[in-house]
Amino acid sequence: MFREGIWILMDLNDFKKTCHQLERPLLVISGSKGCLTCGYLSMDSFERNGDAAAIVRGVNTYEEMLLALVQEVSSRAEALGVQVGMTGEAALKLLR
């Protein structure tokens, strides 16, 4: 969102945020329909369980997740409109 000459990232208060500090942070932002995750997690697991998920890579913060481009999408997330190449923020809006 663009407000008063600066970009404001979406409000994440309606989402569950999980961070595990490993060598690099393992990050997950969960909405009611699915989640946006970092590259630590495997798309195979999401597919096997029928979950809606999108994966972004090379991120260390939630803010970076919103700006990063989606690299992988589960078939269930794809059915919700999530696509490879969209921003994490755009994906989360569909997974809300």
Your description of this structure?
The chain has helices at residues 43-49, 62-67, 75-79, 88-95, and strands spanning 2-3, 6-7, 16-21, 25-30, 35-37, 53-55, 72-73. With 96 residues, it is an alpha+beta fold. The chain has one domain (11-95): Hypothetical protein YunC (Hypothetical protein Ta1206 fold). The strands form two sheets. A five-stranded mixed sheet has the order 3-4-5-6-7. Strands 1-2 form a two-stranded antiparallel sheet. β4 (25-30) and β5 form a beta hairpin.
Q: What is the strand and helix layout of this fold?
A:
Layout: E1 2-3, E2 6-7, E3 16-21, E4 25-30, E5 35-37, H1 43-49, E6 53-55, H2 62-67, E7 72-73, H3 75-79, H4 88-95
Parallel strand pairs: 5-6
Antiparallel strand pairs: 1-2, 3-4, 4-5, 6-7
InterPro entries: DUF1805, YunC_sf
Pfam families: DUF1805
Protein name: DUF1805 domain-containing protein
